[in-house]
Amino acid sequence: MTTKVEQAQVIRGLEGVYVSTTELSRVDGERGRLFYRGYAIEDLAEQGSFEETAYLLWHGHLPTATELERFSQQLAQSRRLPARLYCVLYDLPRETTPVTAMRTMVSALAAWEPNADATTPEAELYHARRLTATFTTMTAALHRIRQGEEPVLPRDDLSHAANFLYMFHGREPSAAAARAMDTFLVLYADHGFNASTFTARVTASTMSDMYSSVTAALGALKGPLHGGAMEAAMRQFLEIGAPDNVDAWFERALKEKRRIMGIGHRVYKTWDPRARILREQARILASESDEPQWFELAERLAERTLQHPYFQERRLYPNVDYYGGLVAYYLGFPPEYYTLLFAVSRIVGWTAHVMEQHADNRLIRPRALYTGAEELAYTPLQAR
Ligand SMILES: CC(C)(COP(=O)(O)OP(=O)(O)OC[C@H]1O[C@@H](n2cnc3c(N)ncnc32)[C@H](O)[C@@H]1OP(=O)(O)O)[C@@H](O)C(=O)NCCC(=O)NCCS
Description:
Elements: E1 25-28, E2 33-36, E3 39-40, H1 41-47, H2 50-59, H3 65-76, H4 83-91, H5 98-112, H6 121-146, H7 160-169, H8 175-187, H9 195-204, H10 210-222, H11 229-240, H12 246-255, H13 273-288, H14 293-307, H15 309-313, H16 320-330, H17 338-359
Antiparallel strand pairs: 1-2, 2-3
Helix pairs in contact: 1-8, 4-5, 5-6, 5-10, 6-7, 6-17, 7-8, 8-13, 8-16, 8-17, 9-10, 9-17, 10-17, 11-16, 13-16
The protein binds coenzyme A (COA).
């Protein structure tokens, strides 16, 4: 039996479908360019900072020096957690995966946050700062508690990036480490309608609150098809073990038709512009590290793929996670935290998208084409 609805076209995975407009980021996959509100990420990463990027995405323009100073102070003053949230962190079983733990913590934060449900523009700017600032405090505290160490209280005299490293490791970072962390946070802040951002917007479109949207987004990010590639890329380098093993490993991977993690992108058909920038940060960190071999290994593997016809024909280039994983490693983060590092940055994009959605809301409610059984005769329970 056919109905009118069955003639509708189903676009699986919404691939290539425009479901909304956005002024937040533009991804140019052919040219390998990424812009936040019209500004090239190269300029923001090199001359700007995470704080400037967050201000730009949330407020719609680059801050003046006075605006930036005030904003940085507000963000820094939003870092402290209610004491009861530390109890929640201590109560979580140690084996809880870090993203699951943080999904719980963001939800718990809302319970202690007055006016968490408020969706006015002023309230949402406050919530965006609060979520972004406390996300670093909670992530660092989670790590330290799991290590059997005391959480380190935030400092408000450090930048967002430097304070995060300080709370995570319990010591002030070097200038190069703080710079690399800042660059990393600028580069992952927004990237169009990826799955977690879309999830945040669907949640926001019911006029639900920002904490619910970020909780939902974290659930989407957790899946290995989205937030897991950075960790997978670094684990792959560790598995290869040494630069001299690259050639044999690469040949075997080709033979086994194994995917090389951190290579290829659905949108970028050339170098991912974020990968180029993180590559330089990884190079700097490697040169200061006593484990420079991982950068060397990654460079050799990237070179093999770039020179190979299989990768050339399919236009497969290093993506952001290829070098993102290396930067995270050199910054001393354990691989199981890499997906959360993505979130530490992307929370800016998620919250910006919630604000953009609420500024001109329309409920996101697509349809599914029904393909199940039709009009069956109901058999009473005793007769089945
Ligand atoms: C990112 C990714 C999912 C994009 O995939 P996509 O646009 O759906 O591309 P497809 O899966 O259709 O792949 C196209 C072709 O390239 C191959 N390919 C894609 N990525 C590859 C990789 N990393 N290593 C080896 N081959 C790869 C596919 O096998 C396929 O080959 P075929 O045409 O002979 O079947 C994919 O490149 C990938 O899995 N990369 C590794 C994981 C990763 O780094 N993810 C992070 C993305 S930011």
